[in-house]
Records
---
Amino acid sequence: MNLILNINGNAMVCEASAAETLMDVLRRLGYFSVKHGGCKKGECGVCAVLFDGKPVNACQLLAGQAEGHSIQTIEASGQHPEQGWRKTDGLSVLQQAFIESGAIQCGYCTPAMLLAAQALLEKDSHPSEAQVREAFASILCRCTGYLKPVQAVLRAAAILRGEAVEPLQAAPAQGSVEWTPLTPAAPELPETPGGVDTQVMPKIWTLPKTDGRTVVGKPERKVDAVKLAQGKPAFTADLDMRGMLVAKVLHSPVAHARIKRIDASAARALPGVAAVLTWQDIPRVVYSTAGQSDPIPGPLDTFSLDNKVRFVGDRVAFVAAESAEIAEQALRLIEVEYEALPVLLDSREAMKPGAVRIHDEPEYVNFAGSDAGRNLAADIRIDIGDVEKGFAEADRIYEAEYEVPKVQQAHIEPHVVVTYWDEDDRLVIRTSTQVPFHVRRMLAPVLELPVKRIRVIKPRIGGGFGGKQEVLIEDVAAHLTIATRRPVRYEYTREEEFTASRSRHPMRIRLKTGVKLDGTITANEMHCLTDTGAYGCHALTVTGNTGHKAMALYVGDGPYRKSPNIRFYADVVYTNHPPAGAYRGYGVPQGYWAVERQMEHIARDLNLDPIAFRLKNAIRPGELHPFSTAWSEGREPRPEIIHTVGLEQCVQQGKAAFGWDERYGNAEWRTVPGKPHLRRGVGVALAMQGTAIPYLDMGGASLKINDDGSFNLLIGATDLGTGSDTVLGQMAAEVLGVPLEDIIVYSSDTDFTPFDVGAYASSTTYISGAAVVKAAEQVAERIRIRAAAMLGERGVKVSPEEIILADRKAAAPSGEAVTLGEVARNALHHNDQEQIMAVASYKSPSAPPPFAAQFAEVLVDVETGQVTVERLLMAVDSGVIVNPVLASGQIEGGMVQALGYAVCEEMVYDEAGQPREVDLVDYHIFRADEMPELQAMFIETDEPTHPFGVKAVAEIPLDGVAPAVGNAVLDACGASLLVNPLTPERVWRALKK
Amino acid sequence: MIIEYHRPETMAAALSLLARPQPLTLPLGGGTTLTQMHDLTCAVVDLQRLGLDGLNGEGDVITAGAVLTLQGLMDQAGSDTALGRALDLEASPHQRNRSTLAGRMMTADGRSPLATVMMAMDARLVWLPEGQEVGLAEWFAMREGGRKPGLLVASLTWSAGMELAFEAVARTPKDRPIVCAAAARWPSGSIRAVLGGFGNAPMVVYDGLDGHDIVKAARKKYAQAGDAWASAEYRQEMAGVLMKRCLAALEKKEGQA
């Protein structure tokens, strides 16, 4: 039917079918700010538009319904301020506030948030925080924790009212006057955070050595924020190509079966179908989907398509068609006869004699201890010290079995890929991935193409959290492009994200700890039984990190500190659940659930202060990482000293800011007047993560100067919304003495940017950052040499080593200077011409751990078991903070993901392997209007192994929240749970005990 | 898949379209449900021009048009009332801006907080063309048999003057309830108590004059209410806890009055 739609004040004539939603039509017309979250019930809200001024989900509205109404998208708001000779008003106040406040991380939900905020401010110029949160309640954000978007709206509202709003740089956060002295003193109740100009910047205990830096350490705007605030077509799916086909996959309806017969003839005959591929149509190449360095540290057990299905959601056939509707119709026409096999879902049964074998294919390739005959994807046996002697020397032995669930990354942009042949018949894979270089290397044999004939482009990514460290769907589109010779787009639905994606590994963890009565840990032993699901992607390395990080924090005290006794054994088994994989934290949150719950039980049983007990046994600066001589992700381990540990300072400052001493053990505070069914409690957990994989992770950077003294920084590192492009740009800018705006950052394209392992293992700031610094230092050296010569021609005698790069100039100590633009033009055009540029790479012999103290406050309804988390505070030692706004955004957003792990997120299956959760309604992630108060603070340490002293920040916020909440529930009401999440029924049952 | 879209100007035209035997023709309110039913082949009749979005009080009867949005109802009810809280849990703000009252009641399951509260309010559906009134409980019982062609919900009605209480337990403050309870008390002293959070539809626990052990009745009602989300034992216990809280809230309101 023909429609006239009033979009952004323009009457647009378009054609639409009766079934087309407004979202479909808007995206077809090029309004790519209207994003697609793949949901069926409108739960993600990223497709929001203003419909007669009110925010609505465009996916839940037929295009026909919209005729005669006003439709507004973010394309109508603001423009880049620099448009050449055409003057613009620049960005809107709201857009600017979002950019300045760090409210944009991946930016996928940003247009929807901006529109919701705009509608609110048009209604109410003085909104409360609660009203802003309500306005955002329809839009799920997995990155930010909502705090900075809320603050951005409050700042914008104040600006629009004409009030003076302090710039971020002036916020009282960098000084030390507000800090608790590092000598013991009576703590005070913390100030209540509030005000538009105080919440955006976190508190940072800064180091004197960072004084004088002009870019590193500053809350610079994200380099990609302007385009994201405008909803520009920056993401994988925001690309329309002539003749592009839509791919769909037929997924298995059963958990374990052989495909006895498959007939795709009716589907192939359907008009509009370009290709149908079954296992009979493509090469049978065994591989692993885990996006890791070569060789993959895990078994090769996967085929693009196989004659066997191993979980509900496994692949059966691929279809490419002219439209999604035709593709779906074709899927229904594929006839499949399954020969049912026994279903194995209980990890405890997997290795028992007689258990059904999940991988019996002859092509299976073992790695290390994997044994497909026993359904064993990986095993780990690590003994450090003399564990039995340690137990024998203990006064008490504590043993318990803990359980952690399977949970979803739930990035709001689904997995999505576009493939096409370019004009040189090279296969281009435009994909939302964390690992573009691994995609290229790993898919080459699967597609029977040499690496050199594949180009992988990574546009902006709408969140990944490890889910896109998997080479998950790129092969589907690529096979179909090879089959049809046409461009193909494949985008997961939200249901596919749940049924056919990856997740955090569920584990059963048995923990045994020997302790002396004075609180000295004498030995610690962990046994993990990990369910990797149907495939062994990341099986070894995720579970290895469970021990490597969580079991390394508490080494013991006294003689045990010098020679800790630690055992970590793990069996990672195949089942007929959907595969697990990488998820932010990478096995470590599982470990800390057990370790930190156990520490709490021990402290309470021995009547010890829970924090003092932890610190007594925690690792200290200068000590050997106990696992460093025992295990290194399946590669050769090498000893590693931990140089910086800011844990005690994190505890001290965190306690003071949280008001721990006023609350812990305070019986009066625990009760709620007039509400006898409510109890308050506080809990703590300490955590240690890692920064990169030593001797393995490598990042590269290329830097060149332009005529005006600006620089192109090309990096293979993969910014998945974290802000790594910005942080890396800041480091380059600091070295080169220019503002960040002079660094044009581009990532990543396997044809143009240097190699980088990708965004995982918290490596980018540390590893890729060091590569950037190396490249920048080489460029700086060339600039100094040329500047010295140029100044010499002007009669200023100066050696290159004396030249200082600052304020876009190369200056002699006397103050005589040439601009970097002059240096660039001299080099490019005038004298002894050269392109000043450098390429550098970096791998590290160290993996310096960040540390944190996590505090939680809860309210428990002892009649229903419902837990309401009211406050989360995390004090973090991540070394030197390069960008405080972005770093605190990582902590806030990470804490909220971890909060879901604590109270509501889990993936549950019935006895046939059918999932309970297939959408973000049943799989509830936190909304803006139900958030606890969040606070992130940083205690800087100077990590000597990095030129700017940085350590990782992105993963550690996932570690402590769940156990801190569990400990707070114990504190509140005595309910002791060994299983998370802390659902009302579980708490109620624990209370009944 | 939706194969036809109609936007009639009159009720007669709408009813005529809905009465067609073929293709299956369904009324379209906000679109939040029908747009997502890709497996259903149907035509839709958009009701937006028919003036069914009002909310009126006449005497002690309140009438809400079938396509009154949930947000429209919330604006009137207030977000801090029992009805407002149920609406808040029922749908997010963007969805409340589109989702219609009748549409929700047509598709609600037992976990719907709004259906639980509306049933406690003894809301009734008014069907066209004959103006037949059907209570929500009756509708939920009969809808399994399928909707008859040619019929259209024009409005929902309920009586004014009742006091209402609502309680829920869920994993987070804004999650779908695992168990919820609603109770309404009329000036006559009559109480209607309903449980939600389970099954295909909310369940009426009690409807009559005060004096019965409603808490006990609630517990009994959910004695077998186990599913993948909660055990029957837990739901049974919560049915009692939440209903007790609802009744206490009604008592408090009565005391304040």
---
Amino acid sequence: MSAICLDISDLSAVLPNGQRVLRSVSLAVQPGEVRALVGESGAGKTMIGKAVLGVLPSSVRVVEGDIRLEGEDLGKLQPKARRTLIGARTALIPQDPLTALNPSRRIGSQMTDRLVRILGWSGERADTRIRQLLDEVQIRDPDRVLKSYPHELSGGMRQRVLIAAAFAAEPRLIVADEPTTALDVTVQKQILRLIVQLQREHGTAILFVTHDLGVVAKISQKVSVLYAGKVVEEAETAALFAAPQHPYTRALMAATPRYTEPFASLKPVDEAVLAGLASEIAAADQAWRRPHG
Amino acid sequence: MDEGRAQRRGVSPRLWLAGGWLLLALLAAIFAPLVAPQDPLAQDLMLERLPPFWIDGAEPGYWLGTDSLGRDLLSRLIFGGRIAFIVAFAAAITACLVGSTLGLIAGYFGGWTDRIISRVVDVWMAFPPVLFAILLVAVLGTGLSSVILAIAIIDWTRFCRVIRAETMGQSRMDYVENARIAGYGRIGIMLREVLPNVVPSIVALLSLEMGIAVIVEAILSFVNLSISTDDPTWGGIIAEGRLSIHQAWWVLVFPLITLILTVLSFSQFGEALKTRFDPVLR
């Protein structure tokens, strides 16, 4: 087994019109590490998560680079073998806990189904496992929840169910795609705490996609800052907050609203910095196009 | 929860009214020889154009009166229901199976599959349905199975279009992506994850289609293109009633009421069933 849990190197992806949505992205996640991917909407954070999980939209094409999951190059595997590998070793904690659960199936059957049908567990074992996980995410009435349809549960409950489901098969890597964005502010904190707690107990690596620097500071060990599909800065979380190197990172931090100054107006990211980034990216694209025609 | 459900169940009289009428008509059709007061084919020129029971001159045993050949109208309506229901069930289920399967495939797989199926549906729907039906029956020959086949051939597109759109919507939901990440195969996702979510629409459409099949069968009988002319059909009775409207209005009015009630009940029943089948609306 390779030491590196997830290793993305030089990943580039394009839209049908030739525009690059991922620009030579490289990042490595060590086993048991929480890696935050931070950036504005449209920066390609979710795209990276989808690429790892093998569910890129059909219009997006990977043109360069590779993704290794525990040393296995996903691009070199047959589609079927790739699906099996991704299914067994990864899981997703999605952004919207409502649409991520099938509305016409009971929670219990949705959760055990995957363990039974994909991993070949016995029904009894799957049921025990699911109840154990529901207990870990502090659901106190598992019988009711397992019998419920998704719409009968609150957003926070649904997200707990999805967290339990993600950890149930003991994946090595979980992609958490803005798992708290769709939730109430008061619930966000509990959910974050749960994710961190389960992550520590299970030793699972997490690729945590977010636009919230506050969340980054709380949960991650390392951060990649993304802009326009390009990693502009990568650092240990503590180091990044202590001394951000890239001007964009500094601008992003300056734009974060603070509780200590409740009446200060919201600031956008500094435009001079964005202009600088735009020319940096244009230059990089030009350099990239030349060898790639 | 259970209380709320029971309450909502209580305030759905349309399910009971529509279902009640359909059940009554269906049972009458099934047990027609036992239920019908007279032989529907027996002619008696002494009893021609008897009025319904509440009008002077009515004869006991001929509740809704008789037609110009002295045949009992109620018995003819009951026996006509047999053909109406056979056509409704057989044609609607055939159209549903073909249309829903193609719609599910087109909506879920998209791309070329979808383009081909959708183009066929577009071309198909460009034909005016009733003329298409008459043409088909003329080609296939009259008879029960040709009527059923003609209706199925025309109306599968209804299912295909709606189920395709519903499937496309469902396929974009995150739970489908989740299932893909978990490692399910495409066909498995289509059948186990997506299909249960389009079933409520299929059920509603199926019931609606049964109503439509009843109308189309009546139209075909009306223009004498349905089954053999001996067996009573609702459309056939309406055609006869039209000729004697001034002497015996009841021969036209009662089959019309029967037809309207049945078609309306099918559509209402479908809507109500949809609500019952859908866990979110329930």
